[in-house]
Amino acid sequence: MSSDSSTDGKFGEYGGQYVPEALMPAIEELRDAYERYVLENEDGFVDEFRERLRDFGGRPTPLQHAEHLSDRYGREIYLKREDLLHGGAHKLNNALGQVLLAKYMGKDRIVAETGAGQHGTATAMAAAHLDMPCEIYMGETDIGRQRPNVFRMRINGADLNPVTAGRGTLKEAISETMRDWATNVDDTHYVVGSVVGPAPFPEMVREFQSVISEEVRNQAQERFGTLPDSVVACAGGGSNTMGAFARFVDSEARSASGRSSGRTPREDDDEVNLLAVEAGGSSLAVDEEEGVAPNSASLSTGGQGVLHGARTKVLQDEWGQIVESHSVSAGLDYAGVGPELAYLVDEDRVSAVNVGDDAALEAFHRLSQEEGIIPALESSHALAYVEEVLGPDAEADADGADELGDRIVINLSGRGDKDLETVIEETDKRSIPNAPDMSEFAGGL
Amino acid sequence: MSRLSEAFATDEPAFIPYLAVGDPDIASSKQYVEALVEGGADCVELGLPFSEPIAEGQTIQQAIVRSLSGGITPEAYFEFVDDLDVDVPLVCMTYYNLIFRYGADSGTAAGEGDHTAPGPRPFVKRAAEVGIDGFVVPDLPAEEAGDLRDACDEFDLGLVFIVAPTTTDDRLDTIREQVSGYVYVQARMGVTGAQADVSDRTAESLARIANWDVPKAVGFGISTGDHAARVVSAGADGIIVGSALVDIVADGVENDRATADVADDLREKARELKDGALRGARESPEAQGE
Ligand SMILES: Cc1ncc(COP(=O)(O)O)c(C=O)c1O
Fold first, then answer.
1. Which of A317, B20, B38, B187 has its CA 20 to 30 A from that of A145?
2. Is A368 a catalytic residue?
3. B166 near B189, Cβ under 8 Å?
4. Would you say residue A260 has pLDDT above 50?
5. Could you tell me if residue A376 is inside a domain?
6. Does some domain include residue A114?
7. Name one Pfam family in it (chain A) (predicted).
């Protein structure tokens, strides 16, 4: 992680720092710390981070060949097993990086927002591990649908602040955490949970998550002597996405978009197709009257806007009011998306696609049955997209079949234990053809 | 001199109230603004509610929810301002996305229309037409304000920036170059909301910008005439009060009170605050020394 150019925190027109004046000094301080410790390894920060990711986090995570899915699709399917990272999702890469950075900066309190509870859990674990007091903001709706994570955060010693505004999901939790930060900025670091927010967060979180694509590159070379044809990742805010893509995005595209990683670009990078799979929810239309979008597909359908500190693609009504998003998966349920991802989609470097709730639920059951891995509902969206394009019900020559190529890496961003209640409830409501019959046990959960 | 600076033209300290337009409905909020002006307001900050008010505390968040559920839109806001019959400068306080998106051809329904944003010019043009004299945009620091600054210059409107207790000296210079109308001195850290006391950091913040040639108005947490007096005697040219007034509106909604009664209370609170500010001016070291 060394720097070779400075940046203004913009990715083309996206990004920037749209925050209250009271936060600007903290953001400048953070940028300075990020450059020194993360990009220049001052005081051995990066070495310590890597060591803790290994010993505490369990990295590297495997790149597993998924035999049954490969048979099903007639392509070689590899799963990047971020579900095996400590905590059960990719979130720890970022949480550990930021909590450690906060320590190097001399902060003595951590706040974070969480949607699915995975980032909150990862932050609570990292804070316990590094001995920092930690408070998590979580929307009430999400508290209701991600209870196992609520308990995990509390058990790790974090305080949990329920957020009642709006629909009580990630958007409201982020706003409320920003208010806390604006009040306590002197001694507090806000561990933003995805590649969103004001600069330098999108870039910094991408750097902490880029260990995913760094490993995929090496593992692919070892396994099959070349790079994969495509990498598929779900996108909420887009941190597992940018993490899985970062080392395949050449530094020329990047130089217009913030800092390059310092890695020498390789010619073949450009040939790796990158697909960001958003939550199509129940429909792609926006209900302006109600101010809701029954989806979270901001890359596919959103307009340019400014939300939570950055200019990006946003689900909004005709006036620019942010609408409530929806997805069966709490971690994708967000009206915005990381500015760098918005930029890479505009530049045609990343393809934005989406799949709906039902397809994600089906994919959840499929991976569980075929490979013995219970995926997070978020990650199930990435799996569902591959099924949609290559599965037995796909049209021959479905759009996208070529783009996926022969060797496909699916970023399995997390495990699904946290989602069991939701899955059982939702599967019941919807008639998901491949779901096991649970009626005999109903009510006992 | 811009219309905004006129609010500070006399020797008197300026009283600048804030209300969310459309809280709880357009008709009441018109009476409320008029009552505040009758009570002594020298300028009014008219809030245009945004769905993600990250700089706002509970009180104003709830005002925004009431106003949005009442159906306020930027266009309805502009019509409100156009109809308003008061003779003081008016400042539009809102968040950047509403300014940035105004005049976009469509919403975000899949595949429809043009998803790029027109930028701030159409919003500023329309605001100027209906009689807005300037803007405060709490999520727009000076670094990101270039386009809005250009549009404000084109239509001759003021652009108010906030100076926070944490603002560094370097940043003060940047803000000083861009600010016009008045500078909004944030009295304490955090979000908006009425407080039991005013912060000690206020005098310090005022001292740091004492030699700026724009008027200095202090806001965040002022809720009584005594607070107003203290802030003005510490050197402020004006006071900005939001949550303490919104509390009165909220009380009216909760207890189902008649609009005229709520307006009476607002008028009376305005007098208390304005009188406090006047008292502060008499007690200021400057006034005492003369
Ligand atoms: C397992 C998992 N995957 C993906 C996401 C979405 O976040 P991002 O898009 O930032 O990777 C979440 C968020 O909570 C998650 O828990």
1. A317
2. no
3. yes
4. no
5. yes
6. yes
7. PALP
Q: Name which residue leads in pLDDT, A58 or A166.
A: A58
| Pair A215, A344 in one domain | yes
Of A398 and A128, more confident: A128
Instruction: Point out the domain boundary residue: A188, A203, A218.
Output: A203
- pLDDT over 70 (residue A11): yes
Q: Has residue A440 been placed in a domain?
A: no
Report which protein residue has its CA nearest ligand 1's atom 12: A331
Same domain, yes or no: A275 and A379 = yes
- A200 CB neighbours in chain B (<8 A) are none
Please list every residue in chain B whose beta carbon sits closer than 8 Å to the beta carbon of residue A288.
107, 109
The tokens describing A150, both together, are: 């609520």
The angle, 0 to 180 degrees and rounded to 10, between the axes of the packed helices B243-254 and B259-283 is 160
Give the residue, out of A79, A137, A141, A194, with the most ligand 1 atoms within 8 A of its beta carbon, to mutate for a pocket test. A194
Whether residue A361 sits in one domain with residue A382: yes
Residue A443 included in any domain? no
pLDDT of residue A443: 59
* Predicted confidence (pLDDT) at residue A1 exceeds the cutoff of 50: no
Residues 18-37 of A with CB under 8 A from B: 18-26, 28
Rounded CA-CA distance A215/A379 in Å is: 18
Question: DSSP letter string over A192-217?
Answer: --SS-SSTTHHHHHHHHHTHHHHHHH
Q: Is the whole-model pTM more than 0.90?
A: yes
| Yes or no, beta carbons of A291 and B171 under 8 Å apart | no
Report whether pLDDT(A161) > 90: yes
Kindly state the percentage of chain A with pLDDT values over 70: 93
Residue A313: which of A196, A208, A165 has the closest Cα?
A196
Mean pLDDT of A72-89: 98
The pLDDT assigned to B200 comes to 73
Least confident interval from A178-182, A211-215, A305-309:
A178-182
Question: Domain span at residue A262?
Answer: 63-87+210-430
**Which parts of chain B sit beneath pLDDT 70?**
1, 105-114, 289-290
CB count in 10 Å sphere of residue A370: 15
How much distance in Å is there from the Cα of A111 to the middle of ligand 1? Answer: 18
Residues B112 and B239: their CA atoms lie apart, in Å, by 46
C-beta A329 within 6 A of ligand 1:
no
* Same domain, residue pair A296 and A153: no
What CATH number does residue A392 fall under?
3.40.50.1100
Distances from the Cα of B13 to the Cαs of A191, A217, A400, B42, in angstroms?
42, 65, 66, 9
**What pLDDT sits at residue B114?**
56
Q: Mind telling me how many Å the CA of A289 is from chain B's nearest CA?
A: 10
Mutate to test the interface with A, among B97, B112, B126, B174 (most CBs of A within 10 A): B97
- A290: exposed, middle or buried (Cβ count in 10 Å: 0-12, 13-18, 19+): exposed
Asked if residue A291 and residue A269 are part of one domain, the reply reads yes
Residues A406 and A330 in one domain: yes
Domains of chain B, earliest start first: 3-289 (3.20.20.70)
Residue B169 contacts A where some CB pair is shorter than 8 Å = no
Q: Write A364-369 long-range contacts (CB < 8 A, 24+).
A: A364/A416, A364/A419, A364/A423, A365/A427, A365/A432, A365/A434, A365/A435, A365/A436, A366/A434, A367/A69, A368/A416, A369/A434
Determine whether the interchain pair A301/B107 forms a contact, defined as Cβ–Cβ distance below 8 Å: no
Given A203, A226, A242, which residue is the final one in a domain?
Answer: A203
Q: What confidence score (pLDDT) does residue A6 get?
A: 42
Q: Residues A142, A260: one domain?
A: no
Residues of B in contact with A286 (CB under 8 A): 107-110
Mean pLDDT of chain A: 91
DSSP 8-state assignment for residue A89? B
Q: A232-257 pLDDT, tens per residue?
A: 999 999 999 999 999 999 655 554 44
Instruction: Tell me which of A330 and B80 has the higher pLDDT.
Output: B80
Determine the pLDDT at residue A267. 60
